[in-house]
Amino acid sequence: MDAEDEHSNSMMEEIYSNGGEESTRSRPIISGEQLDVEAYASLYQGRTKITRLMFIADHCDNASMQMEALRMAYDEIKKGENTQLFREVVKKIDGRLGPNYTMDEGWCDSVDRRAEQRKEKLENELNAYRTNLIKESIRMGYNDFGDFYYAHGALGDAFKSYVRTRDYCTTSKHIIHMCMSAILVSIEMGQFTHVTSYVSKAEQTPEALEPVTIAKLRCAAGLAHLESKKYKLAARKFLEVAPDLGNSYNEVIAAQDVATYGGLCALASFDRAELKSKVIDNVNFRNFLELVPEVRELINDFYSSRYASCLDYLGNLKANLLLDIHLHDHVETLYDQIRNKALIQYTHPFVSVDLHMMANAFKTTVAGLEKELEALITDNQIQARIDSHNKILYARHADQRNATFQRVLQTGKEFDQDVRAMLLRANLLKHEYNLRASRKL
Amino acid sequence: MQSVENLVTQIQGLSSIAADVAALHNHLKAAEDMLRSESTRLLSFLEQLDPSKHSLGYLYFLEPCMYGSITKEQANTLVPVIARFLTSCAAEQIRLASEKFITLCKRFKDQVMLLEAPIRGVGPMLTAVRKIQPSTEHLTTLHPEFLQLCLSAKCYKTGLSVLEDDIYEINQPRDFFLYCYYGGMIFIGQKRFRKALELLHNVVTAPMSTINAIAVEAYKKYILVSLIHHGQFSISLPKYTSSAAQRNLKNFCQPYIELANTYNNGKVAELETYIRSNREKFESDNNLGLVKQVVSSMYKRNIQRLTQTYLTLSLQDIASTVQLNSPKEAEMHVLQMIQDGEIFATINQKDGMVRFLEDPEQYKTCEMIEHIDSSIQRIMALSKKLTAMDELMSCDPLYLAKAGRERQRFDFDDFDPVPQKFTI
Predict the structure, then answer these.
(1) Per-position pLDDT tens, chain A of length 441
(2) Do A192 and A223 touch, CB atoms closer than 8 A?
(3) Contacts with A427 from chain B: Cβ below 8 Å
(4) Which of A388, A419, A423 lies closest to B313 in CB terms?
(5) Which class for A47: exposed (0-12), middle (13-18), buried (19 or more C-beta within 10 A)?
(6) Which of A118, B83, B105, B252 is deepest in the core (most CB within 10 A)?
(7) For residue A412, which residues of chain B lie inside 8 Å, CB to CB?
């Protein structure tokens, strides 16, 4: 009991101290600064690096950042063989980056020509394998085809080729390879239903999976849930990712992303107990959180009810999160949910709350807070009523007895009405029946 | 061939006991054609008959007088005669010739309408309804006629006395449709929207093979009343609604359904512009008054919602959230709602604050207990009726024949396995 009291006392202090102390407790919030595109891009490799860079270029309104992103995308594409993407980027750059970053027809043609030759060679090889009916070789052939298409940006064909290898898989290792390739391509295509199905296929293989593979699968599943707005499931998947992941999956997701995605989804969807047991006390996930200290801080702030600083962190992170290819569509919803959760949690333990104090804690005006609370009360998420005159929020305890009486009378009335209407209809039907019978006679 | 004079004496002689009345009925039936040909003279003979004693004969004499077109002057003389007959006639005699009685009443109604004095017909018609009803559960053809008179005369309260009986027995669906429609209108006039909704709902969901105009009009009013009373309207009709109604009603009531959609958005301004642009449609349906009530109900609904979230709120804030022009207007609305018992609140005029209170009903008073008790009694009676009906249905030969045909003829369970044991 004592411990609990102490806890609540300290919490009270926190709440009171929330408003004023903020200025003294100024922590450096790194992510508030402009996104360092180069550092960001270095987290990833392969196609996702390019698509992420292009996404940033499309969605940011800072011209220098946009150019920076496009420049890096250009360089990155030049290393690969995707002429289609190359043309796109050149079109976007539109000569703004000087003569070094213009259309390179020569490069395109040579890449295309080489691709043509390689394709022919692959086709010949595959046909030879198929006539010889060597399973392993056929699988390899299709797999090469998949890799080839993937490199050249024909994602649909790549997906088909990878899936085709399935009939020729002999060991579970092959199956997992097939699944991982299919998942990679599906994520690139944004086909997250495929992702879920291939994740479950990979998880069903009889042999024990390597820890890294498991971690990768968890990431993919988490992304799929995130995309379908099932934030709670997404959070669970991200939280299960083992630290073995490291940089091994950076063609899809960086370890930092796991922390951010998982942390935000968990904040938006978990209750207090779950947050404590699954996020804060989670040793595995702590490793990820160390990579993104802002997210770690804001989760801790949320848990220890320092909402102002938590919302501060969130606000600072927002601009960068909006540039994230996966989180972009969900930032607003997640933020709203987190804010609502914070409001609900704040009011929960009290019988009455001073709105001035609460507005201070949430860094908003009393009028704005009133509107937010009103929405939550109407939604029946907070059981309370607002005393707008004295600016106090009173908790409201529903009178069970009265409510029961009310409901009983209501139900009685409805039953009465329904039965009478039914009897009437039955009589009308009977009449109709009689009418028809008499007509027959 | 009898003369009219003879008939009069017969009527006078044969009106006292039931057997004689039956014989008289036969005589009168035989003389019907003659009476019709003599219709111009009949009125003068009526003075020799007493409407309370010789009701059947009186009816047969009176009825032919109503044929053909009737001028205002004639109506002026006829109406009091019929009114007197209706109030004083003997119920058991007129029930022998109920159809004649009903036509008489209908003509009577036409005449009072012709005289533009519907109120003169209300009283006599009410007694007529009561006399021809075998029990209060029966719906007669006179019911809708009577209610229509009440509506034209604006005597809503008189209409209520008939409407408060529960009706179960129906002879003509048309009567039922009209009865519910007019009844709904009377309840709307009395602002008893719950009952109105119930009656209109009955019309809309009644079994019908083809859509009819009454149902369409009723559905329009149903939408409006539902918005006024519940503050919402769901487009889907219950499962038991006839397919004809489900298919067609919506097409006939498009402006009303759009009105309901606009209402659901919760913006008063939008609702008002919509109504303004469709004003003539509502006007031509004679529903403009109800539509206006829908608008004011929206203000009420919004204020009521505030009581759920606020303990105190300034009139200024109420005005701005409910989109009223001034705090003064908001005060009027709140005051009206407090008066009508729709919200529980006090207004502090000094600070311009409204304090919302909880529902003071504690369900502890004697009245409340009596009310609950009566509800229980009522529902028990109702469920008894339901059981009786169910039993009746399961004994009905027509139903059994139909149900039997649908079931497999030789069900294995039909054979009783017990006797086999005894054969061993």
Answers:
(1) 444 444 444 444 444 444 433 333 333 334 445 677 788 888 888 888 888 888 888 887 777 888 888 888 888 888 888 888 888 888 888 777 777 777 778 888 888 888 889 889 988 888 888 888 888 888 888 888 888 888 888 888 899 989 888 888 888 888 888 899 999 999 888 888 888 899 888 888 877 778 888 888 889 999 999 998 899 999 999 888 888 887 788 888 888 888 889 999 998 888 888 888 888 888 888 888 888 888 888 888 888 888 888 888 888 888 888 888 888 888 889 998 988 988 888 888 888 888 888 888 888 888 888 888 888 888 888 888 888 888 888 887 777 888 888 899 899 999 988 888 888 888 888 777 666 666 655
(2) yes
(3) 168-170
(4) A388
(5) buried
(6) B105
(7) 375-376, 379
CA A164 to each of CA A127, A137, A138, A140, B281: distance values in angstroms, whole numbers, following the listed order: 14, 13, 10, 11, 64
Distance CA A176, CA A182 (A): 10
Q: Which residues contact A151 (CB under 8 A, 6 or more apart)?
A: A80, A81, A82
| Dist. CA B68–CA A379, nearest whole Å | 67
Contact A374/B at CB under 8 A: yes
3-class DSSP assignment, residue B10: helix
Distance CA A216, CA A227 (A): 17
**Helix B142-153 / helix B173-189 crossing angle, nearest 10 deg:** 20
Lookup: tokens for B126: 């009410």
Query: Of B256, B279, B149, which is closest to residue B204 (Cα–Cα)?
Result: B256
Closest listed residue to residue A150, CA positions, set A230, A82, A79, A57: A82
Write out chain B residues lying below 8 Å of A423, CB-based: 168, 385-386, 389
Q: Are A377 and B312 in contact (CB < 8 Å)?
A: no
Q: Could you tell me if A128 lies within 8 Å of chain B, comparing CB atoms?
A: no
